[in-house]
Design a protein that fits this description.
It is a single chain. 13% of the residues lie in helices and 34% in strands. With 400 residues, it is mainly beta. Strands 10, 11, 12, 13, 14, 15, 16, 17 and 18 form a nine-stranded mixed sheet that branches. The radius of gyration is 20 Å and the shape is globular. InterPro entries: Glyas_Bleomycin-R_OHBP_Dase (IPR029068), VOC_core (IPR037523). It comes from Sphingobium boeckii.
Amino acid sequence: MIENCIEEGRGCHRIVHLSFSTNHRARSAGQTSAEARFFVRRTQKGIVVSRTHHPSETDGCWRLGFHDSANRPEGKYMYGISEAVLSVFDIDRACAPLVQAAGYGRTDLPDCPPEQMLAWHVPAGCTRIEQTLLTPPHDSRGRIRVVKFHGVDQDLIRPSQRIWDSGGIFDLDVFSSDARALYRRLQREHGWSAFGEPVDYVMGEFDVTQVVATGPDGLNLAIIQPHRPPSFPLPSLDPMSRVFNSTQLVRDFDAAMGFYQDILGWKPLMAMDIDDSVEPGADVLGLPMPYAQHCKRRVGIVHPTGSNDGSIELIEIADMQGRDYADRAIAPNVGLLTMRLNMPSPAAYAQEIVARGGVLYTAPIRLEIAPFGMIEMFSIRAPDGAILEFVADIGDQDTA
C-alpha cells in the first residue's frame, strides 16, 4: 500500500516520505496540510527513525525506486514479482473485472500437474486444479494466476478482511492511469467495494490518488494513480499496471522483519513506527476514528536487493486486536495463495535459506508451470502464513 519510499539528504541522516503520513490533500476542498517527515539514521542494528514536523530543504537527494533494464542490480534476484497466485471459487467471476476493467489478457491453461498438488500440499480428494493466467496489458511479469481447486472443501483465507486481522497475503499493489475511474468501473460493473473512498494526497515528490479496492475471493487491489511523473521510471499503467508490491498484515513486526532479513537475506527499504497520525484521507485502510489518529502502526518494506519493484510490505496494527488467519493461508483455501518471485538458481538460494536456519515449505523440485514449461522452484512460508515461491525464468522479460 505504500507507493514508494523516498529518502532525502546526505550522510547517515535521511528523511523518509511515506504514504502513511499526515500529508493528505483533499483536492475537492482545496485543502493542504504540512508534510510529515521522518529522520532516518542507519546504524549497525538497522534503521532508526524519529519524526520531525517541520519541512526543510536539502541539497542532496537519493531515491529508491524502480530499476530500469540498464540499471538492474546484479545478483540472484532479477525480475520483481513474476506472479501472484489467487485461489478462487469461480474462475470466470474472478477474471471478468481484471479483463474488462483493468485490461489484463486472459489465457486459459491446462490443469496444473500432479507435482503442483504436491508442491502446494493439497489434501487428498482434490480432483483437479483449473488455472487461468491474467497478464497485464503492457508487461510480461507482475501477472495474476487464477486457480480453482475441485473436489475439496475450502474456506476463505481472510474471511473478514479487517485491516487489524493478521495472516496470509492482504493485497496486491498496482498503478493506474485513472484510479477513480477504474474503481468506479469495478464498483458499478462487477460489484467491488473498498476500505474507503479514493483519496488524494501529496507525499514528497508524489501527488497521487489511491484506493484499496476489494473484490470477491479475498482479492484486494491497492490502486495508485500518480498525477505527475516521479524521478524514476514507472511500469506502464494504462489502465492498470503489473503487480509491483504486496502487503502482509502481521502479528509480530519484529519477527516478520527478522524472517525476511535474517532468514531470506533481504534488505529493508524502511522500517518505522507510526502513531498519533492518521493515514492519508483517514480511510484508505478503513481504520475508524479515533483509532486512525492514535493507533500505533508498525510498517516496513523489504526486498531482496533494495528496490521496491517486487517488494513486500509488512504492517502490524499494534493497538488493535483482531483474528489471526495464518493457519488458513494454505491450499486449497480461497484468497491470495502465493507470491512467485523469479531468480536464476532457486536450489542454490534454498540452500542459503536452510543454512541460515530457515525451514522450507516445499523443497526444490522441477514441475510444469504452463505455459512456460519445466521450471525449478521451492517455497517457504513467512511467520504469518504467506507462501513465497521462488521460481526460475517463467516468462519475465523486462518491459519496463
